[in-house]
From TrEMBL:
Similarity section: Belongs to the VPS13 family.
Protein name (database record): Vacuolar protein sorting-associated protein 13 VPS13 adaptor binding domain-containing protein
Residue ranges of domain Vacuolar protein sorting-associated protein 13 VPS13 adaptor binding in the record: 97-180
GO annotation, biological process: protein retention in Golgi apparatus; protein targeting to vacuole
Record's compositionally biased regions (Basic and acidic residues): 963-975
Region named Disordered: 956-975
């Protein structure tokens, strides 16, 4: 609803202020000044921070050994924005593994790039002993004290890239070096067994404590942690923190060692004892060799292998009896099984065989204790609504029943279903979405649907079998089972499965730009960005201090040791079976023309979209992700999953390139031919399995599929290549309007996805448009050029007209041929045309409060809105009434009456209505200037009152508004208020469509003819300068009136060869705080004037709440070789940007905590008018 954005902005501003306060508490003013100056001047205390410049955006790092005069340099490193890279630097006998990160600094330092160098690996020691680490095969080791952290660098690339570990206390070795090393490049958790230094090789020295276990977690580090990979060493202090544990519940001693490790260092566990277990070879196979010693001697035949990562793995162990004693299966047999307890994988040993099932406590559930919860919903819908000005539903995401499904009469097909089963030992969840669709209602759209599932093929029944699966299949299916057994610090999932069916994404540049403008105020607040925006010097000081802390030798540099420790010993997630099914989608992207008035959404988004090429059914396939018996922290699992899908997306670049339209979509061509050839062979084969008649049908289906797919692929490729050639030819016309109109016709054709007939019809229209545009351009182009650029523009227009009369008909011929090829291609295979699930939501406007009212979706109101706006898409719908003999639909510009008997539609613009009155009970008549009237019969007094309330706000626009008869006038008499609005024009402007403040449509007065008066530029500007301060701040129609008079008088007095183009920018402060106008710079043009409006202080250049100011700029006279271009740059404390009369040059960037709305963007040949509203 109205005002929602303001509340969000206020919360964002409060968070930003808190960020600045927190940063300021750390440094006083003197320290801020000292640190900032030290950085800028290159003080020795900040020797690790330097200002640097590189034209090629590359940098090299050099280093020298102590006492060595030679400097060793790295290769040239790319330091483009958002670049992450690793490199190594060899310095004499030493080697360093490093990472470089380059990111853009926050505003107002946005032109600078912050380049950081940091170690690739950082090791943090959270054990209670000093840890020694070194690379496998090398001698050089370094020590890590308890709760210490330091970088680690591999010394030799010829040795394994693994790290050995041992512990010491008080300078004495507590353990030997680990038998094998762990890899810092393998993310995840493991544990390393370290033999105690006092343990010998003889059997008599073995004990349950013959080894210590150190847990090792390898994860990708956050940037503020000062490294690329963080390795955490920690020791379990509670049973719940052990990664592996062996529970010996038998009376015999157990011998345990890792497969491939030294059996002489086996772990011996006496009977009825529990011991933590670690891997001697962390990178080896996760299998252990197990042997029990009973009465007889141990032999190799009694050994068994167990996979500790395989939950529910079971093995039977034979025990050797005493010499001379016969083997008894009951007495000389033991069992081993693996289960999960908390966050620990437990190997349990027991005498005798284990039960076949249910050996864990609580495995069997009482059916009487099982609870099932099931919910079925017809659908769920989420809408994005833009407002309050320019109110419109722009997107609607719906979860609903598949419209292609045909359920039986007694079968209701839900859109969303949830089934939750609660058992004592397990919680199961089944979540299904039958159909998901995102409908696009933006005015700039090419496609009506942005996302929809691809059509499903109906499964075929095999011989003697029936089809058991549901058709169509649910679009999204999530199945999981969570164990309810006590799990300590772990959440245990016995199974987790996600399946997403193939879907298609259809987007265009215009829709993405509009969506970006909608989402821009929802940007998350970043602490660094907030501090830099509010106090640039404070950001410099706090950033510098962060790096100085690393230089000071603090353990771990920027690493937060407490947070790293908490993450290492925190909650873990265990998956016995995890399956994320493959994902397949098709992406179609269209480069449609974007109105320059919409370009204010941001520089980065617009420039990226402008460089993208059009894609046609680009296929993206992501492989399935599966894992069994995985235990990981949620953060570590999330990073692993993200890295997997990022690699998958990176591997799709060539496939996407193969779907570029102007290259003929070669990937689509090969895919269609492959599909056709496959069907040609497989369809007859499938039919042969069912019988002779099915075989004949299979031959027919296969041949038809082959022909259709080959024709579709070949003609689609020809159309793509031809379209690219014609696009290049169209650029030679140098007529931007002609090119944009071509693109619009092409996009409409693409959205319709018609067949051969549609292609031929569109081709004929394209041919005619090209010929007509070429012939009329000979006259139109010189006239347009003279209006825009004087004599020079006239000469350029003559050249464009002569070129266009030759090239434009050729372009029309080319477009006609491409349209026919596209029609043949689409008609052969029949591309799917996606339809919205419903009409665009109608947003009613309360006539009394002037606010948008969000109500439940009404199909009737949506139909009324469609009727009212189909001929005038720019109209804003306000509401409708179902009267006894007609429908009355209200928009901001007209009244639409639809007769019930004949369905005839009658359109009456408000300024073409004379007045309305109430001649009888429940009858309202709308009178026209010619004396005719439109009767509106109401059903009762309530409807009559509602009708009068709907008409009252528009009474000011009627030519004879003083005759409006309304005994039941609305509480807020907008009609009378509009009559009292002050105007600089005489009473001839009664037809001007004034409206109430909250919903006033800026620019409605544009184009109104004013009497000509010969004035010089100073007199024109002084008229507006004198009139604006006298107006009320809330009198928007009057302010708009003054600005239009300024523009009208300017263009009337600067015509022909003396044309000077102008720009008028109105800035309105809609917030509750003051806004300062820091500066205005004319980057192209001659001069600018700042015209103070109501509630504007010239002394402080401050715009008070609800105040307004007008910035007026004009250019030089047009010359032979240049146009009269005007471009100015605005800088305020709430936004900054550039506004120009050149197409596509209107870019505004709001400051953090502010929202900028363009209330009007009018760009004509001689003038450009913008109204900018600023709110919090």
């Amino acid at each position: 609803g109205e005002g929602g954005g303001g509340g969000g902005g206020g919360g964002r501003g409060e968070r930003m202020n808190s960020f600045v306060e927190q940063a300021a508490e750390a440094l006083d003013a003197e320290q801020q000044e000292l640190v900032a100056n030290a950085w800028a001047m290159g003080d020795d205390r900040t020797k690790a921070i330097r200002l640097f410049s590189s034209e090629g955006k590359t940098i090299a790092v050099g280093c020298a050994e102590e006492g060595d005069s030679q400097t060793y340099w790295s290769k040239n490193l790319d330091i483009d924005v958002n670049n992450y890279g690793t490199f190594d630097l060899e310095v004499g006998t030493k080697r360093y593994d490093l990472q470089v990160i380059s990111t853009r600094c926050p505003a107002p330092f946005g032109a600078s790039t912050l380049v950081e160098f940091m170690p690739r690996y950082m090791i943090a020691n959270f054990t209670e002993f000093t840890a020694e680490v070194k690379q496998v095969g090398t001698r050089r080791a370094f020590e890590l004290p308890p709760d210490g952290a330091a970088p680690f660098h591999f010394q030799s690339m010829g040795n394994p890239l693994q790290v050995l570990l041992r512990l010491q206390v008080n300078g004495q070795a507590l353990t030997d070096w680990s038998e094998g090393g762990f890899s810092p490049d393998a993310s995840g958790s493991t544990c390393v067994a370290l033999p105690l230094a006092a343990v010998g090789d003889g059997d008599e020295t073995y004990s349950p404590h013959a080894a210590m276990v150190v847990n090792v977690e390898v994860r990708l580090a956050a940037r503020e942690e000062g490294c690329a990979v963080l390795v955490v060493l920690w020791a379990a202090r509670r049973r719940a923190q052990h990664l592996y544990r062996v529970e010996n519940r038998s009376p015999w001693a157990a011998w345990l060692w890792q497969e491939g490790s030294d059996p002489h260092r086996a772990l011996v566990i006496p009977g009825f004892q529990d011991v933590e277990f670690g891997w001697a070879l962390p990178t080896g196979a996760k299998k252990v060799v197990l042997q029990l010693q009973a009465e007889g001697p141990r032999t190799a035949k009694d050994r068994v292998e167990v996979e500790l990562d395989k939950i529910n793995a079971r093995r039977t162990i034979k025990l050797a009896p005493k010499p001379g004693v016969e083997f008894d299966p009951l007495l000389h047999r033991a069992s081993a099984a693996v289960r999960v307890s908390g966050g620990t994988k437990v190997l349990r040993l027991a005498a005798g065989p284990l039960p076949d099932a249910g050996w864990e406590e609580g495995r069997w559930d009482d059916p009487a204790k099982m609870v099932t919860f099931e919910a079925q919903l017809a659908g769920v819908s989420v809408s994005l609504v833009r407002g309050p000005r320019g109110r419109r539903e722009i997107l609607a995401a719906s979860l609903a029943a598949n419209p292609a499904a045909e359920p039986a009469e007694d079968d209701w097909r839900p859109g969303v279903s949830v089934q939750l089963i609660l058992r004592p030992s397990q919680t199961s969840l089944i979540f299904e979405v039958d159909h998901m669709q995102v409908d696009n209602y933006m005015a700039e759209r090419v496609f009506d649907v942005m996302l929809a599932p691809s059509p499903q093929k109906e499964p075929k029944a095999k011989k003697g079998q029936e089809i058991e699966e549901r058709f169509p299949q649910p679009f999204l299916s999530v199945i999981l089972g969570k164990s309810n057994a006590p799990s300590g610090a772990a959440v245990c999932f016995e199974y987790f499965q996600v399946r997403l069916l193939e879907f298609e994404v259809l987007v265009d540049r215009g829709s993405l730009v509009a969506l970006g403008a909608f989402l821009a105020p929802l940007r998350l607040v970043d602490a660094a960005e907030a501090v830099a925006a509010r106090s640039p010097r404070l950001w410099v000081a706090t950033t510098t201090r962060r790096y100085l802390a690393r230089l000071a030798g603090r353990a771990g540099g920027g690493l937060d040791l407490a947070a790293a420790r908490a993450a290492a010993v925190g909650q873990r997630v265990y998956f016995a079976a995890l399956i994320l099914h493959p994902v397949k989608l098709q992406v179609t992207f269209v480069q449609n023309p974007v109105d320059p008035a919409d370009a204010y959404v941001g520089v980065n988004v617009l420039s990226i979209l402008a460089e993208m090429v059009s894609l046609d059914h680009a296929q993206i396939k992501l492989k399935s992700f599966g894992a069994d018996y995985v235990m990981e922290t949620p953060e570590g699992f999330g990073r692993t999953l993200t890295a997997f899908y990022v690699r998958q997306l990176s591997s799709q670049v060539l496939k996407i390139a193969g779907s570029i339209s102007m290259l003929g979509s070669p990937a689509d061509l090969l895919s269609n031919i492959g599909t056709g050839v496959g069907d040609f062979f497989y369809e007859p084969y499938d039919g042969l399995m069912l019988g002779p008649s099915a075989f004949a049908k299979g031959v027919k289906r296969g041949a038809t599929s082959l022909v259709k797919n080959v024709v579709h692929g070949a003609f689609n490729s020809l159309a793509g290549v031809g379209g690219g050639a014609v696009h290049g030819l169209g650029a030679l016309t140098f007529d931007q309007e002609f090119q944009q109109e071509r693109e619009r016709r092409k996009n409409r054709r693409l959205a319709e996805r018609g067949g051969f007939r549609s292609g031929v019809a569109q081709g004929a229209r394209n041919l005619g448009s090209g010929v007509v545009a070429g012939l009329t351009g000979v006259v139109a182009q010189p006239v347009r050029g003279a209006r825009q650029g004087g004599l020079g523009g006239f000469v350029r227009g003559v050249g464009k007209g002569l070129v266009g009369v030759v090239v434009k008909p050729l372009v029309g011929v080319g477009d006609a041929g491409v349209s026919v090829l596209e029609g043949v291609s689409q008609g052969a295979l029949g591309d799917t045309l996606y339809r919205p699930l419903r009409r665009r939501r109608a947003l009613d406007l309360d006539p009394r409060s002037g606010k948008v009212v969000l109500t439940p979706y009404s199909a009737l109101a949506a139909s009324a809105q469609e009727v009212a706006t189909e001929q005038a898409p720019g109209d804003a719908y306000e509401g409708f009434l179902a009267l006894t003999a007609s429908w009355a639909v209200f928009t901001d510009r007209r009244l639409v009456v639809v007769l019930r008997a004949t369905a005839e539609r009658q359109f009456y613009p408000w300024h073409e209505i004379a007045f309305y009155d109430l001649p009888g009970e429940h009858l309202v008549e709308v009178h026209l200037p010619d004396g005719a009237s439109v009767p509106l019969h109401c059903a009762g007094p309530e409807q009559t009152e509602e009708l009068l309330a709907r008409l009252a706000p528009h009474g000011a626009a009627m030519s004879q508004r003083g005759r409006n008869h309304d005994p039941r006038r609305a509480p807020r008499d907008w009609g009378r208020r509009a009559v009292e609005t002050r105007s600089l024009q005489d009473q001839d402007f009664d037809k001007t469509s004034y409206a109430r403040k909250l919903t006033y449509r800026w620019g409605e007065i544009n184009g109104t003819h004013l009497p000509y008066e010969a004035l010089d530029k100073d007199a024109i500007i002084n008229h507006a300068r004198d009139a604006l301060p006298k107006l009320n701040s809330d009198d928007w129609p009057a302010i708009d009136n003054v600005v239009w008079r300024l523009i009208s008088e300017w263009k009337d007095n600067h015509t022909g060869f003396g044309v000077r183009k102008c720009i008028a920018v109105v800035i309105v402060n809609l917030s509750s705080v003051n806004i300062q106008l820091r500066g205005v710079d004319v980057t192209s043009g001659r001069l600018h004037e700042t015209l103070p409006g109501p509630r504007y202080s010239e002394a402080g250049r401050t715009l008070l709440p609800q105040g307004s100011v007008v910035v007026f700029a004009y250019g030089h006279r047009a010359k032979y070789v240049s146009k009269s271009t005007v471009e100015l740059t605005l800088e305020t404390d709430s936004f900054s940007g550039t506004i120009s009369n050149r197409s596509g040059k209107a870019l505004l960037q709001p400051a953090p905590g502010y929202q900028v709305d363009v209330l009007e963007a009018s760009m004509e040949e001689k003038y450009c008018k913008f109204v900018i509203g600023v709110s919090k």
